[in-house]
Write a structure and sequence with these properties.
10 helices, 274 residues, mainly alpha, two-stranded antiparallel ribbon, globular, single chain
């Protein structure tokens, strides 16, 4: 059983509260940076571009993620909209961050005149690395939990953080829930280990960009699975918005992967003739 976490605030520095959520996201970005440096060097890409690119893409992803979260949890912010804008922030929506981060990545690579596909292989798995670490911030915030469960690893959530029909009055203080943050963290860690290793094994047999696209598809499938276990979904027409967004991301990713595979066939044939 996963217990109720300690306080989400590590320390108060005057008016500023240092929170586990922000610290874990920062650690996730740092580890993802180290991962990208290693992968970029392996592919003989310009490592010096990573830090500047990360700053731009991170800002875009944070803005998109925050906007998505505020819309998703508007009942929390509707009485005080300024609370959605003034730090410290306690929530981000990954689907929104992926969309704005991807747009920023495309703009940066175009502006710097970089071939995109090698960088897609670098950035895609790095997203999984970051999510594997950063998702533990949700545990400290007691959020991103799912349906009630009797499984041994069920998550304890205190009464103050219960929502909808999961209140202590309805389910009792001893109720346990699916730890969705843990599932996403483990999925990210597994993908970050498996996909780069697979890319090394298939080097020369798959088109550049395929491992990065596989990482995006891996994340989209993970989120689609988890949406079926969530309680507090933002819905449009009765369908969870994250399902629509991640379903679209998965579809586009598969179409691009099919195009890349088809485009790479003539080059593979020429390579065999030589």
């Amino acid at each position: 059983m996963l217990p109720v976490p300690p306080d989400s605030i590590i320390v108060n520095l005057g008016p500023i509260a240092l929170r586990w959520y922000g610290v874990l996201y920062a650690v996730g970005l740092l580890v993802a940076y180290q991962f990208m440096v290693r992968e970029a060097r392996r592919r003989k890409l310009n490592v010096d571009l990573i830090i500047n690119g990360m700053i731009i893409i991170s800002i875009a992803a944070l803005a998109g993620g925050r906007l998505y979260h505020v819309i998703d949890a508007w009942d929390r912010y509707s009485a005080n909209p300024l609370g959605a804008l003034i730090p410290p922030y306690e929530g981000l929506g990954a689907p929104g961050g992926i969309i704005t981060g991807t747009i920023a990545l495309a703009v940066v690579l175009r502006r710097w005149r970089q071939s995109p596909w090698g960088w897609v292989d670098v950035v895609g798995p790095a997203i999984l690395v970051m999510q594997a670490i950063a998702r533990w911030g949700n545990w400290f915030n007691q959020e991103l939990y799912g349906l009630p469960t009797d499984l041994p690893w069920g998550l304890a959530v205190d009464c103050a953080h219960r929502t909808y029909d999961t209140t202590c009055t309805a389910l009792g203080e001893g109720a346990r829930f699916h730890p969705l943050f843990l599932y996403e963290s483990l999925s990210g860690a597994l993908g970050a280990l498996v996909l780069p290793a697979l890319g090394q094994r298939l080097r020369g047999r798959i088109a550049p960009g395929m491992i990065g696209l596989a990482a995006i598809a891996w994340y989209a499938v993970t989120r689609l699975f988890l949406e079926g276990l969530r309680l507090d979904n933002w819905k449009v027409g009765g369908v969870p918005t994250a399902t629509l967004v991640m379903g679209g991301v998965l579809l586009v990713t598969l179409l691009v992967a099919a195009w890349r595979t088809r485009a790479n066939r003539p080059q593979a044939r020429r390579g065999r003739r030589r």
